[in-house]
Amino acid sequence: xxxxxxxPGDAGGGGAALVVHxxxxxxxxxxxxxxxxxxxxxxxxxxxxxxxxxxxSAVLDALPRExxxxxxxxxxxxxxxxxxxxxxxNGTDDALLxxxxxxxxxxxxxxxxxxxxxxxxVLKENHPFTRLFSEYPAKSMPHLFLVSRDxxxxxxxxxxxxxxxxxxxxxxVIAVDYKKKYEPSLKEVKKILVRYDTLDAEEALKEExxxxxxxxxxxxxxxxxxxQLELLRVEKERKKLKxxxxxxxxxxxxxxxVEKDIVLTNLAGKD
Length: 271
Hints:
This protein is an alpha/beta fold and 271 residues long. It folds into 2 domains: 6-178, no CATH class; 184-249. 39% of the residues lie in helices and 10% in strands. It has 7 helices and 7 strands. Strands 3-5-4-6-7 form a 5-stranded mixed beta sheet, covered by helices on one side.
């Protein structure tokens, strides 16, 4: 999905992926929303967090895989996209985003997932979430994996996958968790992003003209009032597009609430 106008940047909340120059509205729509779960060990005294429940330096027991999954998933009903950071990609999204192509598809499809980042030390034997990875051999340890919210489908990825491989994996999980097909919505939302860029450019131009007009003829200028009305029109159209975008992105979750016994059964590999 190569696009013209690539420059080094950070549309995904980290990393050096190449991205298209977009306006502020599209950049916001394409921003990755990461969750950073930290396990807090319950204590016998209400209202007090255990001294062990800090994070990187905590000494805790590893949770059973099913419990780790449930803790990370929390109340978010979407399927999970879990990225394990390492010393080379810490603080970036390099294991997810491409450095040579546009990432619009990835960044938009990621909005159908609960995106979670786990720290570099998650593989240590006493980390609460380490058993999410315990079934994988060290030589093929996944950098990220996608998993259905009910645990029925888990797809590990090594971090060097092609965009096509990533999209295929995301599509497989989306098909499990959502009622509607994603392709028509993705196509229409990308058209909306183009319109956002046009509106943002138009808005910037009108604001510049307003400033010049204000300096030249003062706040009572008729031309200034006309430009203000044109800005209101731009904002009104942007709001309409945002409502349409939200509607398109709603694919309808098959399960808005997932019973714990279903998750536990699927992750344990039982019938």
